[in-house]
Give the backbone structure.
Amino acid sequence: MSDQENIAYEYALGLLSKQEKDAIELTPEFLQAVEDVQLKLSALQLQAPLDKSASKQIWDNINQQITPEKESWQDILVARFKTWIYVLPAVFLAFGSLILFEQTSQVSDPYSMSIINAKVGWEVNADIENRKLSIASVNPMLVGKNEVCALWVKKDSVTYFISTLPNVGDKLINLSPKIAKLLKGGEAIISIESTNKPIDQPTRIEYRNQLS
Amino acid sequence: MDKNLEFYFTKLQQNKTQRTFEQVYKLSSVRLFGVILRILKRKELSEDCLQEVYIKIWNRIDTYNATRANMMTWMSTIARNHAIDYVRKHQLPIQDDFELSAIKDNQVHFLDNLEANDANKQLTDCLGQLKDNSRNVVFMAYFNGLTYDNIAKAVGSPVSTVKTWVARSLPILKKCLEGSHV
């Protein structure tokens, strides 16, 4: 193997540190070689998959963040047809139930809360019932090149990291049941953290808000 | 399953709709989540990363070149690279809880899965030529996103020793990957 091939393998395997990678001249040929190795390695990984499923909410979050091109009329027709296939029996069943039982039920709105308003630069809203957190960047804090703003929740003297806050755009996060529970009555914290060290506790706290 | 994926993936390239992308997601997310989970280890972080990966796939779908790799390989490469970037960008303290026993389980699981498929026997035999130390290092880097420094710390050997193991293993790894037609 040539030196160039060796480095491409080391690069593709992820063995090199940032400093080592910065020292490499990224020519189109080298990047092509790295990509070739990565594709071969990926194929290898897929031969031995680790079968784990993500939560069902993940697709909903992705779906909200992508912008589709205009759907073709065939897709729209198929979708509408499928909808009616499912809806019609449901409509008949629903009427049947009403006639038999004459009962109505009221569905309560999911419990949602505003964690941070736009005053500090982000609008952060939690939908506790569905364990979703939406973060909209409105006018984010100015931080240094190697810094990032982080969102935490503190309860019973223990602080938990939730997510880094985006400088632009929106971010949707799927909350673990534990974090979702902590948001009720916890304290929301925003801190500025260095990206050169692990984000394991808030260092420069810029904002606190007691949640109800 | 891959035929279905190929169908929806091709359809998505022709017309980017959420409905088609949902089918691609359903048919591929388990495997991509596995790729990410191997590196990030924590479920909630892996789910956050998975979301970002699929948004990246959505935005880059036009750049996919079928002559260079199949779509699952292409998506898997995006997932792995993004997971490693995710760890390094957020400087997550994940590598601190790294245990060698975890890698051994991971490795056994990996080789078992390979052996379960006759078509992979050649690859399994080939990887078997790697000495334990060398194989551990390659697996730790590839499946868990560890650098030379991280691996040296995890195995308690100098970085120069780890580099020697890698230098010995790369020609064999190259031969295995090129010979297996994976």
About this structure: Helices of chain A lie at 3-13, 18-22, 28-46, 57-65, 73-101, 177-183. The first helix of chain A runs from residue 3 to 13. The beta strands of chain A are 112-116, 122-127, 132-137, 147-155, 158-164, 170-174, 187-194, 204-210. Chain A touches chain B through 60 residues (CB under 8 Å).
